[in-house]
Amino acid sequence: MGKRKQFRGTGTALVTPFRKDGSLDEKALRRLVDFQIKGGVEALIPVGTTGESPTLTYKEHYRVFDIVIEQANGRVKIFAGTGSNNTAEAIEQSEKAKQAGADAALVVGPYYNKPTQEGYFRHYRAIADAVDIPIIVYNVPGRTGGNIEAATTLRMAAEIPNIMAVKEASGNIAQIMEIARNKPDGFSLLSGDDAITLPLMAIGGDGCISVVANEIPKEFSDLVRHCLKGRWEKALSLHNKLLPLMNANFIEANPIPVKAALAMMGMIEENYRLPLVPIGEKNRDKLKAALQELGLL
Fold first, then answer.
1. Tens digits of per-residue pLDDT, 76-107?
2. I need a labelling partner for 144 at 20 to 30 A (CA). Which of 86, 116, 138, 198 fits?
């Protein structure tokens, strides 16, 4: 297994655009990739939660990997979403991501079956042993029904060399501080919540895997770069400016609002796959107001 390479910066958790008939909108996806790279982000994450991974077939997962990798053409890192609550499936998907040319695999904590902490550890170790690709652990208890504790994350960071990072979306600042304080050199701590990126970076974090960067890649990646360079006043000013949109993106389940926003901006068609449905009218108005405030409409 290769030496751990630290990632610092912004990765965008890309939406997956669909056409009206529910098929992949490959042209819109390529446009989004170019928009993100032009905006200055350092990485793209296809087929994560924001990419509606639960309703894509495996064939579609791999097609999205291929499109994003081909369109990015080495300009930014690609962290492919390959998580599953079936360890064998996560291994298979991570192998496909490696074959496609991804730089790393973003692997969500197994959902629904609620493993113990030892179960989490063995899940990730099994993937790391089977596939020679850097792995980002994704901890999002609000979606998975279980929390990967700081001690488990730190154990993986210490004992599994190709676990390169954790995307922390637990919202538990005490837990995140524990990881920040004790993580080994070269291991990246990334925010999984846009709104807490600045405080997370103030305690030693390395960046963010972001939803809001879909809509506003330049300003959000600038915010992260200000944090990395210790320009806290500039970072805070941008944080306060972007906060209403960061919050509006979660007014309903992600990625409903961000897809609605990108459609309003003329970037994609507003299509979802069930069980996700279009945003409610009251919330649409709130989202529209947040976009107008930033001059995005």
1. 999 999 999 999 999 999 999 999 999 999 99
2. 198
CB 178 within 8 A of CB 208: no
Cis before 141? omega within 30: no
Task: Give the Cβ contact number of residue 154 at 10 Å.
Answer: 18
Say if CB 170 and CB 141 are below 8 A apart: yes
Pairing of strands 163-168, 135-139: parallel
183 included as an active-site residue: no
State yes or no: is 234 an active-site residue: no
First to last CA, the chain: 47
pLDDT at 3: 56
Choosing from 77, 96, 98, 167, which is the catalytic residue? 167
Domains, the chain, ordered by start: 9-232 (3.20.20.70)
Among residues 96, 138, 259, 272, which one is catalytic? 138
Two tokens, residue 185: 């050199």
Bridge partners, 139 (sequence order) = 168
CA 276 to chain centre: 19
**pTM exceeding the 0.85 threshold for the entire prediction:** yes
In this structure, what token pair is assigned to residue 95? 């192998």
Query: What beta strand segments (E) does the chain contain?
Result: 9-13, 43-45, 77-81, 104-108, 135-139, 163-168, 188-191, 207-210
Token pair in block for residue 63:
């097609």
**212-265: pLDDT as tens digits:** 999 999 999 999 999 999 999 999 999 999 999 999 999 999 999 999 999 999
Neighbours of 20 (CB within 10 A): 9
